[in-house]
Amino acid sequence: MPTHTVPSRTVPTCTVPTGTPGTTAPATVGIVGLGYVGLPTALALAESGHHVVGYDIAADRLAAIRSGAVDLLPSDRARLDRRIGTDLLELTTDPAALAAAGTLLVCVPTPVDHHLVPDLGPLRAACATVVAHAVPGQTIVLTSTTYVGSTRDLLVGPLADRGLVVGRDVFVAFSPERIDPGVADHLPERTPRVVGGITPECGRRAAAALLPASAAVHTVSSPEAAEMTKLLENTFRAVNIALANEFAGIARQFDVDVREVVDAAATKPYGFMAFRPGPGVGGHCIPCDPHYLLWQLRSGPVAAPVTEAAMASIATRPHAVVARAREVLAEAGRPVTGARVLVVGVAYKPGVADVRESPALTVIDELRRLGADVAFTDPLVDRLPTANGPLDSRPDPADDDWDLVITHTLHRDADHSWLVTGTADRPAPTVLDAAYGLADAPNRYPL
């Protein structure tokens, strides 16, 4: 596990608003990794008039971007249509092209493996590439969520081995990504960024580079402070989602609608932030990021029992969906073996086609292992990998008879009316509302 020493220094924190004089970003920005973070970041910078060099090791990803076959918000898709093929957006698999950029942003995935241990392979490889092609005068900003101290371990030390002194020859900072896929109100330029530089000049240069595609830049005293900021943000969400799920079970015990309780509590103008229960947590952040902190703390004297309990609770949530499905089926006199079960929505959140870490994967695999005949429908996901091979989405699920329908992800533009009113040929089915989104369904069971 990485160890490092943080130099003692004091740098006052500050927030730089959009339009502050003297904060002009370099003309050319290199984006290392064009996934769900890198591509929207690249588009926002290109939209602000910068020449963007987008580098990715996957030629098929670049081909998908050029053809428009990528999952983007409508506004980002319009940006892609405007910029693709122009001088402002250059896509390449050649890392040598990064030398032309005044600023480099590292935006690669940081997943965890099946044992919940951080998989640092992509990040290490990306940082090694950046270091190998770094040139004097560049500003290098790591944005991928990772452990505290990673900026020094993966960039500062290797750059020094090349003879490049950070703060004099090159400038290094950490600025955690804040991309919220599928949410138009959270575009990069509407979202503040946090920046922590190795030196004050590193922080200033990184802030200036990020400002054109940010609502504001808040500077902290070190990259470690910025790294921990991201871990706190997503651990906060994990803990509160686990609490909301716990209260959902408590509310069901007392025959109370947990949605009504959350809505009522949210009327308090201070001291409360609404989190909603659901079938579990998926995606690239909440199921993964807190484990970077827990992993780093394992060899030290400091414990994180609240975080550990929250992550354990989140991990068991899909199994709770399966257990509740068996209860609902049993109440109807139907064993799970041979039961026809439909899962509505398998993406990890509404509005995206992303199934990474989706709880639906566990729910489907476990129900199939128990002998259920499981299908799914999702307008954004055509095919889903499962333990027993791929499943294809059912385009017209209302035309079939189901012993149980489980709501997992309710996309905003999808038609779910048949779950409430039924059809001309069939009554509304029995629904296990794990998404807590069908208040009016006549045969609804809460999770």
UniProtKB/TrEMBL annotation:
Cross-referenced SMART domains: UDPG_MGDP_dh_C
Domain spans labelled UDP-glucose/GDP-mannose dehydrogenase C-terminal: 342-426
Keyword NAD: yes
InterPro entries linked: 6-PGluconate_DH-like_C_sf, NAD(P)-bd_dom_sf, UDP-Glc/GDP-Man, UDP-Glc/GDP-Man_DH_C, UDP-Glc/GDP-Man_DH_C_sf, UDP-Glc/GDP-Man_DH_dimer, UDP-Glc/GDP-Man_DH_N, UDP_ManNAc/GlcNAc_DH
Keywords from the UniProt entry: NAD, Oxidoreductase
Gene3D superfamilies per UniProt: NAD(P)-binding Rossmann-like Domain
Signal sequence interval, chain numbering: none
Family (UniProt): Belongs to the UDP-glucose/GDP-mannose dehydrogenase family.
Protein's UniProt name: Nucleotide sugar dehydrogenase
